[in-house]
Amino acid sequence: MKRSAIDRAIRIVDRLGISLVYPIDNKAEPRSLWSELYPKAKMEWAWDAGADPRVAEVWHLRERLARSHDVAYAKWFRGRATFFSLPVFHAMLGRLAGTGDVFAGLPREALDILALLRERSPLSTKEIRAMADLRGKQQEAVFTHAMKALWSRLLVVGTGEVEDGAFPSLAVGATELLFEDLWNARRDVPEEASRRLDEVLVQTPPYTRELRRALAPLGSVGKRKAPRPARAPLRPRSSSEGPPFTEPAPAEVFEEGYLK
């Protein structure tokens, strides 16, 4: 794929702050790479020989863009492919870290996957399934639930694809390794980046709702209702007392084309 196409896509993500890859039901919001690259074109979900080749081109562009690390990629918004500009991604990590323990309350399988990725990143989804013993249809729901938890808290990111079978698998890595600088500085987000995230959230309310859903468990983890104390005789008070789309399957994607 031409480097000019990748550079153009990076500029789009930087300008939007957060961008989907494809529009949802061809709606104008949230904005996407497709709607920015082809603003007057309706996207048709077709993957046969007669389909619009631009659909596959954007799919391949997604892979190259995620691999670049000039932007961050995660299946974040409603489980869909989502790109973040690096300042906005940094601010998102800051919001999550500032709300609570991003690791608390994760499913056991999610913690197991994260441990694998801390040892070696990236791994393909096929490798993750095998190493975490989550292969087969009977484990599909468990694997999906675990990955959704990691994506929603931005604990993992996508970084291209891996040729490890008949069709390529998404390469996934631990955010703390692949974006180490941003992760280590997540409690020291520049004011400008935080303001930029606020602007994006105001402009696109669905992103605000999605972030709130991700933050909600963090604020409640570890907070338990205090037991009602046994009734005791009144006594003087001591002064010391205080008050979780469907993207196309790899098999559906035909040969790579080029963005014009």
Description:
The protein is mainly alpha-helical and 260 residues long. It has two domains: 76 residues, no CATH class; 131 residues, Winged helix-like DNA-binding domain superfamily/Winged helix DNA-binding domain (Arc Repressor Mutant, subunit A). The protein is 46% helix and 11% strand. The chain has eleven helices and six strands. The chain has a three-stranded antiparallel sheet with strand order 1-3-2. A three-stranded antiparallel sheet has the order 4-6-5. A hairpin with a 6-residue loop joins β5 and β6. α5 packs across α7. The termini are close together. The C terminus is likely disordered.
In short:
This protein has 260 residues and is mainly alpha-helical. The protein is 46% helix and 11% strand.
Feature tags:
about 260 residues; mainly alpha; Arc Repressor Mutant, subunit A; 2 domains; 3-stranded antiparallel sheet; 6 strands; about 10% strand; globular; disordered C terminus
